[in-house]
Amino acid sequence: MSAPNPHAAEPHDWIDVDALTRRGDGLSGVFALIRLPRVLADAPDLPGQAQEAVRWRVHAEWRDPPPAVAAAVRALAGGRRAAVPRQLWLHLQAEGRVPLVCQRCLEPYWQPVMVDRWFRFVANEAAAEAEDETCEEDLLVLDGPRYPLLELVEEELLLAAPLVPLHEVCPRPLPLAVGDVLGADGQAAAPASPASRPNPFEVLATLKAGRRP
How many angstroms separate the CA atoms of 108 and 103, rounded? Predict the structure, then answer.
């Protein structure tokens, strides 16, 4: 028997968003970390990585647009009785751990990440570009009945990861460079400011003055 393919499509890789609105309890599941190639690109290889998973939950709902938006739509339609389409929203929650390299000690570690965001769907890229600069919410383009949930989770995990990964406390003391001072916590203390260091020329002048008869 051949081994299962970790990259094979699974039922919830894509979701039927309109059908999701009819589920009062939403939808939840897990994605194996190894199915998220962009998250693992250039990532360190840590023990247990093949078993690591990202938990997610999604909920979708239809909402009436804000009054100002409804008024603008009716004004553009030339009448107060113009139909104002409802808006489709998606709530995504996800949590897991991603492998990163600490930029202070250069050791690999597991970084916890969490996602909790609402998105509003629009019909096409043109609508997204037209609304992107004026709306506060995040927009997603839904050009069919289904949306790629796996790609969305991967994208949001990348955005949630820190730009400069750092341990809260590095696992071992950092090596000291020339001139570094060891602090009380075992880490290299901040170097003294130039103003607090003695001027070598002043020291030399003092020594010369002390030698005068």
Answer: 9
Average pLDDT over residues 123-151: 90
Q: Tens digit of pLDDT for each residue in 7-42?
A: 567 889 999 999 999 988 899 999 999 999 999 999
65: burial class by Cβ within 10 Å (0-12, 13-18, 19+)? middle
Q: Residue 66's closest CA among 136, 116, 142?
A: 136
Gap between the terminal Cα atoms of the chain: 98
Characterize 24-45 residue by residue with b for buried, 16 or more Cβ atoms within 10 angstroms of its Cβ, and e for exposed: eeebeeebebebbeebbeebee
Q: If we measure between CA atoms, which residue out of 133, 168, 140, 167 comes closest to residue 156?
A: 140
Sign for the CA dihedral angle at 168, 172, 176, 181 comes to positive
Q: How far apart are CA 97 and CA 112, in angstroms?
A: 4
pLDDT at 135: 83
**Residue 4 structure tokens:** 């299962």
Contact in structure between 100 and 109 (CB atoms under 8 Å): yes
Give the CA dihedral 124, 125, 130, 134, nearest 10 degrees.
Answer: 90
How far apart CA 6 and CA 32 sit, in angstroms, is 8
- Map tokens 């939950």 to a residue: 57
Return the structure tokens found at 107.
């050791």
